[in-house]
Specification:
disordered N terminus; Asp/Glu_race; 11 helices; 2 domains; Rossmann fold; Asp/Glu/hydantoin_racemase; Asp_race; 241 residues; 13% strand; four-stranded parallel beta sheet; isomerase; 8 strands; alpha/beta; amino-acid racemase activity
């Protein structure tokens, strides 16, 4: 890529949580081809950790984060962003409420993951999902994977609460360790026992606590998939220019 004609400016709507936002930006940088500072993408980051918990909102236990998401999107637009990326899976449940009000396109992380799964070989017919209870209840991955004919398997309610959510909270609290990895590894193994040919790390905190080599099938990192989609978009925009 060259920098002389590039106009795309990535707006990252983050803070959900801060560590996941920092991790996503690092992946965006690592994914961008180039040999100098000037080869990288112009980026604006709005990291607002005061955005109410998305899972609590979806379960009826907390305030609706939509106003915060709208405000953050407007901050990014006013700062010059030309496209929005949201490195939080659960926040995508609220994308329909903001998409028509911010005047910028949103690269849909979950849609990109569904398309990515169709590119894996051998063909993925069944995928497992490790995600927040809010993401699971909202049916975000179920809806998108259905469009591509991919069956989705999930942890049972007990394992969702005691393994997956416990691990996610540990990462958010900055207290994750080998115990956290063990919880997520067990949860992933149960999904492969149900026939999952790939496991989606469907909460941006999960890759921080679950190394890819801890799972014996491909571990799909939605933040990385989103970063790759943004680079492709910027490359195409630059080529067209």
């Amino acid at each position: 890529m060259t920098t002389s004609t590039r106009t795309e400016i990535i707006g990252i709507l983050g803070g959900m949580g801060p560590a996941a936002t920092a991790d996503f930006y690092a992946k965006l940088v690592a994914t961008t081809p180039g040999t100098s500072d000037q080869d990288h993408l112009r980026t604006v980051i709005w990291s607002d950790p005061t955005i109410p918990d998305r899972t609590e909102a979806l379960l009826g236990d907390g305030p609706d984060p939509t106003p915060w998401l709208l405000d953050g999107s407007r901050v990014l637009r006013e700062a010059g962003a030309t496209v929005i990326a949201i490195p939080c899976n659960t926040a995508h449940a609220f994308v329909p409420r903001i998409a028509d009000h911010i005047g910028l396109p949103i690269v849909h992380m979950i849609g990109e993951v569904a398309r990515h799964l169709t590119t894996l070989s051998p063909r993925i017919r069944t995928a497992g999902l490790l995600a927040t209870t809010g993401t699971v209840r909202a049916g975000l991955y179920q809806e998108w994977l259905d469009r591509f004919g991919i069956r989705l398997v999930l942890p049972d309610a007990g394992n969702q609460d005691h393994e997956v959510m416990t691990a996610i909270h540990a990462v958010k609290a900055g207290t994750y360790d080998d115990t956290t990895t063990a919880l997520l590894t067990r949860a992933a193994r149960r999904l492969t026992e149900q026939g999952a040919q790939a496991v989606v790390a469907g909460c941006t905190e999960i890759p921080l606590g679950l190394p890819a080599d801890a799972v014996d099938v491909p571990l799909v990192d939605p933040a990385l998939v989103l970063a790759q989609a943004l680079v492709r978009r910027a490359t195409a925009e630059n080529t067209a220019a």
